[in-house]
Amino acid sequence: MGKTTLFNALTGLTQHVGNWPGKTVEVGRGWYRSPAGKLRVVDLPGTYSLFPSSPEEALARDFLLGGEADVIVLVLEPRSLERHLYLALQVMEFRRPVVLAFNLIDAGDCRVDTARLEAELGVPIVAVSAARRQSLAPLVQAIRRVGEDRPSPSAPTEPWQDRFGGIGREERAASLYERARALAAMCTAQGTTSSARSSLTALDRVLTHRWLAYPTFAGLLAGVLWLTMVGAVPLSDLLDSGFVQLAGSVERFLSAHNVSPWVIGPLVDGLIAGVGTVVAVMLPTMSIFFLLLALMEESGLVPRLALAADRPMQRVGSQGRHCLACLMSLGCNIPGVYAARTMSGRSRLLVLITAALIPCNGRLGVILPLSALFFQRGATGVVLGLLALSAVAVMLTCAILSRRVGRQAPGDGLLELPPYRLPHLPTLILRTLRHRVLHVLVRAAAVAAPMMLVIWFLGNLPAGAPLTETYTVRLAAALHPPATILGLDGQMLATMLFSLPAKEVALGAFALTGGVARSLGEAGALPLADVLAWTPYTALKFLVFFTLSIPCAYTVLVIRKESGGNLGLTAIALAIPLIAGSAATLLLHGTGLLLGWR
Amino acid sequence: MAMGGGRQLSEVAIGSRAEVLHVGGPTAPRLFDFGLLPGTAVEVVLRAPLGDPIVLAVRGTQLGLRLQDASRILVRIVP
User: Fold this and answer.
1) Residue B58 in 3-state DSSP?
2) In angstroms, how far is CA B18 from the centroid of its own chain?
3) From CA A402, how far away is CA A163, in angstroms rounded?
């Protein structure tokens, strides 16, 4: 049982995740409740040592040494006992109150004499095995005991910053590892610690094979996307019909109470229909995608992908882990942006800048039906082509910017490859749905909601105007001249603007910008084929532009936050997709002009 | 570039075991945290599909490491 599994077991449903004050790092917090009283539990990001190499690790260090915690619980993994003891010894050097939780689940045939280890170290060691609360009682007792023995807050705690200067890091690490090794050898029955010959599995042979590795990963990824799209359709339809019913009942209720249509309209056809579209598309696709991705992560597949991707990403100035951020972005750009927290230096900035170039599930939810409508049998090829285009755009951006974004050191590409294992499903599901899906979705919907109201009013004002003369249609007309430069039209650009709250809104927005519906509620009933009279070539130009060019508003907000409020970087992150999308569309349009495509 | 009889870790064949003699280069401090220190036993386990990075087994952990960084680590092959 790992750190977060233990946290989940301790806190149950009381936990919540939020930014650490003043930092762009998220931390889980919750309560352990029992008749003996409550314990506040904080789940820190994992770290290898007290010398941080990413914002997450820095937060862990500050928290561990800053004296905010009454008791620090460190989880020891028996398979790499020495490395975990190294961190424990580092923390204990600072005389912090420590309890060691010894993970029995991943122990395998590794037998460790915890009583002996406890005697040697002089801190309590408790074996934890199952995610059942009862089995946690000894751990909680140890935590309470250590907490009570803790020196009173008035006792001066040594300023820890002083201890990091001067002394050679190598000497410090060497002496701590020597101790860790001696302890591990003393307390491990079969000497399994470091002499264990690594077992090379058949899976590793495939995933690092010169010719098989990349096709295997590509196939895996295609499978994840396919399952997401296919699996989400029935769920999305179900949610959609739920929102339609909700809209209907709200409308009937309000009409029965003689509420003005100028309240009912924006509320029902603007807000409920708009937010309904977002939730109906995002909730199922994000849930399925991120559950599958979490399975790949926890089972150990994703670190192998990062390993395989490191060389190509290194060539363009980034690192293999950047590829994982891209993978997240494919589900939703926001977790993709968050992935920068685990990285340092230049790669971190590149992740922030390139995340929006990846078509998220929201964009794919528009790309797929449009491709199916205009390319029928060729649709799969078109979608794969667009994904490849996005990958090229990411690589090019990295190659061009990597030497220009700050003077930060490139990421080091160091990567731990954990052993393959079966994930603990309840933890995985709970964590994915809470932290990656709901956490993002609720905020995204909140950001989108006011914009949905604006869209409704643009489609219904001036009051009494015919469908073809609303502000929406006038906006599309005004955008037409600049749009033609790229070979697009005003309806397309206006639709891009309307999809700022959430990209999946684009499908419904076509009916508004085309002047055939006033609101997203009305648009929902119109078949797309009746709204769009495009040739496949026209459709392709829109798809290229749509794939790359504009992220949703919430993504921009998150990039700003994650870059520490750096407006310059946020502007670059917004400009790059726009430039890349325009350039690609212009290239296609120019080629079309030369070859006489229509 | 042998130094004191050492070989660069980047030149060591897959499947070989070695003892670390010296860790240098900009990643050295991070490598110390992973327990890659003079005297540590390592094994080169495999290579990424394009030959870089390589994967080491060190103290019960598998660690991916770029050739560039591995070339700054000097080792002695252990038969």
Assistant:
1) strand
2) 8
3) 35
For the stretch A407-445, pLDDT in tens is: 566 667 788 888 888 887 887 888 888 878 888 888 888
**Backbone conformation region of residue A19, classed left if phi is above 0, alpha if psi is from -120 to 50, else beta:** beta
CB contact under 8 A, A414 and B32: no
Parts of chain A with a pLDDT under 50: 153-156, 166, 191-198
Q: Which residues of B touch A (CB under 8 A)?
A: 23, 26-35, 37-38, 40-41, 43, 45-53, 55, 57-66, 69
Question: Least CA distance to B47: which residue of chain A?
Answer: A208
| Nearest-Cα residue of chain B relative to residue A54 | B30
Helix (H, G, I), strand (E, B) or coil at A66: coil
Closest CA to A360 of A348, A368, A370, A350: A368
Measured between CA atoms, how close is A359 to chain B, in angstroms?
A: 27
Q: Do B33 and A308 touch (CB under 8 A)?
A: no
Other beta carbons within 10 angstroms of residue A151's beta carbon come to 10
The full DSSP string for A363-393 is HHHHHHHHHHHHHGGGHHHHHHHHHHHHHHH
CA B10 to chain centre: 7
Question: Strand pairing of B54-58 and B41-47?
Answer: antiparallel
This model of the complex carries an ipTM of: 0.93
Q: Which residue on chain A is closest to B25 by alpha carbon?
A: A412
- Paired tokens of B21: 């003699």
pLDDT at A167: 60
Confidence at residue A64, expressed as pLDDT on a 0 to 100 scale: 86
Both tokens of A547, joined, read 């794939």
CA–CA separation, B63 and B43 (whole Å): 10
Cα A213 from Cα A48, distance rounded (Å)? 29
- The amino acid occupying position B5 is G
Closest in A51, A83, A312 to B61, CB measured: A83
Site from A178, A192, A415, A421 to mutate, B interface, most B CB atoms within 10 angstroms:
A415
**A188 secondary structure, DSSP code:** B
User: Are the beta carbons of A82 and B60 separated by less than 8 Å?
Assistant: yes
